[in-house]
Structure formats: structure tokens, C-alpha cells
């Protein structure tokens, strides 16, 4: 074996965002770009003698990157790498592998919901031994290292073939290729009543799952059509493609439009769901009934006890700050804790580890539980199916009953994508500066009660995160939140999250955009969104 040390220079901008380092694929493919980041990661975690999990969502450059990382891992003294067959692992499956195989963490290659391909995006992140995304202390140590790096280590030998299951060696390192679908399917069977869901399908219940040509295809095929007996064709766009078939693998009404339109049509099946590029997000749609991710989290929290894995009840519920308060209302009724964290799954890890929360969720279509340390798209779909199998009611009815019991939190997110970065940053800075003067201000028939910049202190490890989003609370039980995305690669994406509580069941059937019109207008005026961004309206509404 011959280990080579290659001289390199720091590359600007290798700073992990909300979920790892994301960049345009072309940037990642520049000589040394991936190598610099991986060596910085290794320097930060000291991987000698350790076992790591490795896999990605299969997007363009995945195979090549896996080869490079294997060769660098061997040169850095890693003892064993557990790789998903073909280099592919969904994000929740990677977390499951880290946990069940007890590896010393893992590396996940994904830009998640961002488009893939030569002209798309690529990404990399490190997950800790508990299975979750590395906390800020580790990601900043990695970033710090990228600013001083001067060399990286790599083996000259080519990486072994990872198409077939089994073990091979690379230098002194063992490369073990595993079938991640099996580990994941076993985990799902330990949580849900597969018999009841099988009976549901056997009774004629119909479903479409849109894998969006992304990583969940094989998982959904095996679980839904294989183990649960759903008819073939239940899973749409099931073949993972390196460019996701040219689509944007983000499961929302805009990017999963064909499924969404089907669910709103006369021919709608009983249940529709979709997942994203790396399999950690989910969209849930009933016949004629879109379930917002915030509502989905609340409904799942209220009904989780119907699934065997959660029959003993929940220890607590956690949501990201911009997510609606619907889940908090459920927690209050159940007498369990409700936690509010900054955006990004990494903030849920300590709460899950400490047993303070069992179910977590984000408004961005992420839901998950303590079974892994990532959000998990198929898990959410299976929990919904388990609930439907027990309650034997249409999704629309379950939602209506939920709102009747808890009230409805009308909710929407407006994204302004690819906005001029300095303009977006100035918008946020000016809002921040104006915070003290906002209370009492009247806009669009609403009155500002309170306004702040969300800061969080982790109740378990005491770590702090500041400037996590500007919150404007209105007297009328409404809220607007402003944030800049930390996952984009071009310009800035401004996210405006709006919500308003409606206790009256007679008013639970309104169109969300209409119910939120005043909050949207107030927020638009407050931040002068149109003037600052030069946009007449948002690019994506969820
Ligand atoms: C977005 C979402 C956030 C999510 C993150 C990663 O981050 O808002 O809730 O955790 O993506 O999801 P941001 O910073 O762009 O708002 V994924 O499926 O892209 O790993
Ligand atoms: Co994702």
C-alpha cells in the first residue's frame, strides 16, 4: 500500500450550513475541494482505528466521492468503513446503520432536497456516533481546520468495487458493503404494526408514494409493495437517478405537483406521500386534503400511541421554532414537554438522547423520532399508515377532528429563492435593528405584541445558538418569522413563515392563504419584501 501526502491550500467558504456543506456540484468537483473538507473532518475527529458508516443519496458525483473518501479514510488510519451497497444510503438509513452497527459516526453525501446533476448541488456532512448530524462545536472545528489545512492523505490504490455485498480491503482498512434497505426495513417492522397495515392494503386501500427518482425508491418498493402488499405501481418514480430525472426532489405541492394534483383530482387514491433526495423529508396528502408538515407533526404526536413502537406514550415533543404551535397544543393536553429549537435536525439530538422528546418535527416536511437521529420520510409515512389502519378514517376526517379538538393553526411558508445576498442580509439586519420599536405597531389590521431574534440555549448541554430567526408576534394570536436559508448554494433564500390560530371549527375550512392574508401583508410591509427583493411574490409557497 502506498500512502501519499498531497500539499494543498485552504479553500474559502467550506463552512457547513443548516445541514452540512452544500455547494454546486461543479465546485465540489474542483481538484482538492472534497479532499480538503474530508481531511479537515478527519483532523477534527481523529478517525484512526475507528469504524465509520459511509453512503450518499446517489446523486451525480456520489460514486466518485465515495471512492475518494474510502482512499482518504484508509490513509488516515480508519479501521473499517461500512458502506451502503453501490455507495447509496438514505439519510435516515445512514443514521440507523450508525446506531445498529455502533459505528463511530458516519459520512453522508447529500444535498438533500436541492437538485442534483452536473448543474445541480452536492453536499457532505458528518454524523456523530449517536447517529445524528454533528453539533455546532464539531462543524465549527471542521470549518476552522479548512482555513489552515496544508496537506491531505490519500492511498494511491483504487477503492474496491462496492456494487456487491461483502468485505474487501483497501490498504489496512476493511470495506464492508451492506444492504441498508434490510437494516432499515427491520427497524420499521419493530415500530409499526405491519400486519394491520397489510390488512389495510388488502381491504382495497389505495396509495401513491412519489420517490421523485431519489433515494427512497428501493426502500419504498421493498416496504410498501413488498412487505406490506401494496399493489405494484404504488411507488412512483421509484428508480433513483443521479439527476433525479431533472426534477427538484423536494416533497411539497410545488415540486411534487403531479402527485399533489392527482390527490386533488377525482381519481385520487386514499393516501399520497412523497420523500426528498436523501429520504429524510415527507409530504402527506389525503384525498383532497393536504396536510401541512406542522399539522402532520401534531397529528402524529396525538396518535402515535396507536403504533406499537409508541404504545407507552411520548416523553415529549420537539419542533423547530418556525414550525407552527400545533404540536405544542397536543403536548399540553398529553401533559408532556414541548421543546422549541432552532432550525435543523442537529438541535434535536440532545433532547432525544436525554429522553426529553420522543417525536420531533420541522415545518419543512421533516418528522422523526428517537428510533434514529435524523428526520425520516418513510417513517412518517408508515406512522400515518399505522394510524389510518387503526382509525379506519380518511385523512381529511382525521384532520378535521384534530382541528375541532385542538383548534387550527393556519400555516404557510413563503420562499423567495436566489435573492441578491446583500439585499437579503440588509433586510434581516434592518428588521433586527427595528425590533425594539415594533411592539404596538399596527399593520394590516394586526398589532405587534412582541418581536425578537430567536436565541436558544440547549437544556441538556447548555450550548447557545443566537440569531436563529426574527419573530414577530401579533396580538391576534398570529406570528410571522423571517429567516435566511442555510442550505442554498446560489444567492440567498428568504423564508417568511406565517401562522394564525383559529379556535372556531366553523372557520376551519378556509383557504390557508386567505386565512393568513393579513399576516402576509403585515410581514410584507414590515420588511418591505417586495422593495428589497424586487419580487412581486414568493417563488414557492408551502
Ligand atoms: C432547510 C429547512 C430545515 C431543514 C434543512 C435540512 O434549512 O428549513 O428545516 O432542517 O433544510 O433539510 P434552511 O436553512 O434552508 O431553511 V434537508 O432534507 O435539506 O437535509
Ligand atoms: Co433531506
TrEMBL record:
Residues 14-152, 184-285, 294-406 form the Alpha-D-phosphohexomutase alpha/beta/alpha domain. The keyword Phosphoprotein applies. Pfam families: PGM1_C_vert_fung, PGM_PMM_I, PGM_PMM_II, PGM_PMM_III. It catalyses: alpha-D-glucose 1-phosphate = alpha-D-glucose 6-phosphate. Residues 1-20 are annotated as: Disordered. Its EC number is 5.4.2.2. GO terms for cellular component: cytosol. The keyword rRNA-binding does not apply. One of its GO terms (molecular function) is magnesium ion binding. Belongs to the phosphohexose mutase family. This is phosphoglucomutase (alpha-D-glucose-1,6-bisphosphate-dependent). It comes from Paroceanicella profunda.
Amino acid at each position: 500500500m502506498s500512502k501519499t501526502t498531497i500539499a494543498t491550500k485552504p479553500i474559502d467558504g467550506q463552512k457547513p450550513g443548516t445541514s452540512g456543506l452544500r455547494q454546486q456540484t461543479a465546485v465540489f468537483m474542483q481538484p482538492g475541494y472534497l479532499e480538503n473538507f474530508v481531511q479537515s473532518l478527519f483532523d477534527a475527529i481523529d478517525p484512526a482505528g475507528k469504524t465509520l458508516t459511509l453512503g450518499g443519496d446517489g446523486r451525480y458525483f456520489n460514486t466518485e466521492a465515495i471512492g475518494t473518501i474510502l482512499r482518504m479514510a484508509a490513509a488516515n488510519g480508519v479501521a473499517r468503513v461500512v458502506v451502503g451497497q453501490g455507495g447509496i444510503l438514505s439519510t435516515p438509513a445512514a443514521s440507523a446503520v450508525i446506531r445498529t452497527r455502533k459505528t463511530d459516526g458516519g459520512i453522508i453525501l447529500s444535498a438533500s432536497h436541492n437538485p442534483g446533476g452536473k448543474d445541480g448541488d452536492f453536499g457532505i456532512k458528518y454524523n456523530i456516533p449517536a447517529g445524528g448530524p454533528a453539533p455546532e462545536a464539531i462543524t465549527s472545528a471542521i470549518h476552522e481546520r479548512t482555513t489552515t489545512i496544508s496537506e491531505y492523505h490519500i492511498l494511491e490504490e483504487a477503492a474496491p468495487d462496492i456494487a456487491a455485498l461483502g468485505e474487501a480491503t483497501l490498504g489496512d482498512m476493511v470495506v464492508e458493503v451492506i444492504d441498508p434497505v434490510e437494516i432499515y426495513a427491520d427497524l420499521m417492522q419493530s415500530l409499526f404494526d405491519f400486519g394491520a397495515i397489510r390488512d389495510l392494503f388488502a381491504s382495497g386501500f389505495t396509495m401513491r408514494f412519489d420517490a421523485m427518482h431519489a433515494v427512497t425508491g428501493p426502500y419504498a418498493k421493498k416496504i410498501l409493495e413488498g412487505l406490506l402488499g401494496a399493489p405494484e405501481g404504488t411507488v412512483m418514480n421509484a428508480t433513483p437517478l443521479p439527476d433525479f430525472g431533472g426534477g427538484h426532489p423536494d416533497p411539497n405541492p410545488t415540486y411534487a405537483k403531479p402527485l399533489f394534483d392527482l390527490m386533488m383530482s377525482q381519481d385520487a387514491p386514499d393516501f399520497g406521500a412523497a420523500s426528498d433526495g436523501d429520504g429524510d423529508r415527507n409530504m402527506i396528502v389525503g384525498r383532497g386534503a393536504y396536510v401541512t408538515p406542522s399539522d402532520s407533526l401534531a397529528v402524529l404526536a396525538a396518535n402515535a400511541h396507536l403504533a406499537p413502537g409508541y404504545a407507552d406514550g411520548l416523553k415529549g415533543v420537539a419542533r423547530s421554532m418556525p414550525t407552527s404551535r400545533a404540536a405544542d397544543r397536543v403536548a399540553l393536553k398529553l401533559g408532556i414537554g414541548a421543546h422549541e429549537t432552532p432550525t435543523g435536525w442537529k438541535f434535536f439530538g440532545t433532547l432525544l438522547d436525554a429522553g426529553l422528546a420522543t417525536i420531533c418535527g420541522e415545518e419543512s416536511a421533516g418528522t422523526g423520532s428517537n428510533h434514529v437521529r435524523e428526520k425520516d420520510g418513510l417513517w412518517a409515512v408508515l406512522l400515518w399508515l399505522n394510524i389510518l389502519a387503526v382509525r379506519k378514517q380518511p385523512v381529511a376526517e382525521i384532520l378535521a377532528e384534530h382541528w375541532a379538538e385542538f383548534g387550527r393553526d393556519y400555516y404557510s411558508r413563503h420562499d423567495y429563492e436566489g435573492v441578491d445576498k446583500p439585499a437579503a442580509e440588509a433586510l434581516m439586519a434592518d428588521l433586527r435593528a427595528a425590533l425594539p420599536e415594533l411592539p404596538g405597531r399596527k399593520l394590516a389590521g394586526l398589532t405587534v405584541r412582541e418581536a425578537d431574534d430567536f436565541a436558544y440555549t440547549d437544556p441538556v448541554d447548555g450550548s447557545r445558538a443566537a440569531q436563529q430567526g426574527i419573530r414577530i408576534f401579533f396580538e391576534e394570536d398570529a406570528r410571522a418569522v423571517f429567516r435566511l436559508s442555510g442550505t442554498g448554494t446560489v444567492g440567498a433564500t428568504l423564508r417568511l413563515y406565517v401562522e394564525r390560530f383559529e379556535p372556531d371549527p366553523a372557520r376551519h375550512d378556509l383557504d390557508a392563504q386567505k386565512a393568513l392574508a393579513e399576516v402576509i401583508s403585515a410581514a410584507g410591509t414590515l420588511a418591505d419584501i417586495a422593495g428589497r427583493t424586487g419580487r412581486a411574490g414568493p417563488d414557492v409557497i408551502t
